[in-house]
Design goal:
With 96 residues, this protein is an all-alpha fold. The chain has a domain of 58 residues. Helices cover 77% and strands 0% of the residues. The longest helix has 28 residues.
Length: 96
């Protein structure tokens, strides 16, 4: 099938006409709409902004631990490790 230049021009013309009509309709729609944020949404937005401003970790603590590990001074007592392992086993057994 061969598409002529006239057919291409006709298709573009039809597309532009439809696009102009939809643009005019969307402009009318946009000017008629309004938006008002509720107090709860404003409070949530403020809370979210405050939360995102803070890091998800404590930089001083992390840096101190990183330094201890790199210097080979980081030590966790064996009884604490065993306690955590047994605690996890108990929780897993209870939820299974």
């Amino acid at each position: 099938m061969i598409i002529s230049r006239a057919e291409i021009a006709s298709a573009l013309s039809a597309y532009k006409t439809v696009k102009r009509k939809s643009s005019a309709a969307s402009l009318a729609f946009d000017t008629a709409d309004s938006f008002e944020r509720s107090e709860a949404a404003a409070a949530l937005s403020t809370l979210l902004a405050g939360t995102m401003a803070e890091p998800f970790y404590r930089p001083n603590l992390v840096e101190g631990l990183r330094r201890q590990i790199s210097e080979g001074r980081y030590y966790v007592p064996t009884d604490q490790i065993v306690e955590k392992l047994l605690g996890r086993l108990i929780v897993e057994a209870a939820t299974a």
